[in-house]
Each structure stands twice: as C-alpha cells, then as structure tokens.
Design goal:
CATH superfamily: Hexapeptide repeat proteins
Radius of gyration: 15 Å
Shape: globular
Structural class: mainly beta
Distance between the termini: 28 Å
Number of strands: 22
Largest sheet: 12 strands, parallel
Number of helices: 1
Order of helices and strands: EEEEEEEEEEEEEEEEEEEEEEH
CATH topology: UDP N-Acetylglucosamine Acyltransferase, domain 1
Helix content: 10-25%
CATH architecture: 3 Solenoid
Strand content: 35-45%
Amino acid sequence: MRRVAYGRSVPVYALGSLVPTIHPDAFVHPEAVIIGDVTIGPQSSIWPCAVLRGDGSSIVIGARTSIQDGSVVHTTEEWPTRVGDDCVIGHLVHLEGCTIDDECLIGVGAILLHRVHVHTRAIVAANSVLLNGTEVPSGGLAVGTPAVVKEGRARLEAIHEGAQSYIERTRVYREGLRRIG
C-alpha cells in the first residue's frame, strides 16, 4: 500500500482488513480519497475530490485510466466495481457496482448503477443515467436519462485522445504541483 504520493500526504485509508493497493506509477492527487478494498493500476490517475470507497466489495482500476475530479466510485455487497485499462472517467461521474471494460469513455456527470456493463470501446455520453443491468455493447454509445443504447456509434479516437491526454497531464502534475497555501 502506498500512503504518500510525491512527498505529499494522500488520504488513503484501510478499513479493518481492507487495504488499498496503489501501483507506484499511479498518480493520486492529494485531495482524492481512497478507502478500503481499492486497487489502482500503473499510470492511472485519480484527480481532486474523487472518492473511491471499497467498503462493500472491491474496486479495481486498470492501467492508464483517469478518474477525474469529483467522481465517486463505490460498490455494493454483491457487486464490485471494475474499470479496465485505458479508460476515461469524466468529471462528476458516479459508478456503483458496475463493470467498464478496456478503452471506454464515461462522459461528465454520467451515473452507472448496479450490474451495468460497458463493453470494450464504448462511450457513455455526458449526463447519461444507466439503470441497473444496462448493457452497452462494444463500440456502442449510451445517451440520455435513462440511457438509450445506439450500437456502433462510439468514436475510438475520442477515447484514445482522452486517455493519452490524462497520462500527459499526470506528468505535468508530478513535476509542477506544489501547495502554496
């Protein structure tokens, strides 16, 4: 378990026997909160005010995935939350008891509830709500409240550009972030 990132104190908490595992190459902003059974993969980034709370079951974040500002990642007793490699989880997203495969983009303010499964290279549009058990097929696009799934509409370039931009942004933060107040 890692409790310090780049010389700054990071709020990382064990909860009983549930202890977070954070890869040494991951970036966790000092104002993110990590609690319990949470695993964060290499080159992934967790941004300010994001909360990952693995107190019901596990949370696993793959490699090169960004969990952006203000997002909440939680679980249920029955349903862990899994996010694959090379994913972009936008600002203010709520994930709870769902699975997101590799190379997906979850837009700003989206809500993904229990048993939702977003398959590889799919996109969930901003402010969409995916109700319990919703499936988004590979390459699909989910839009609306509640979301309607449109097959074959995802733009893979948007996913790759977003994932790469956050890997680059992490480098800037590692080198230049300093608290001045």
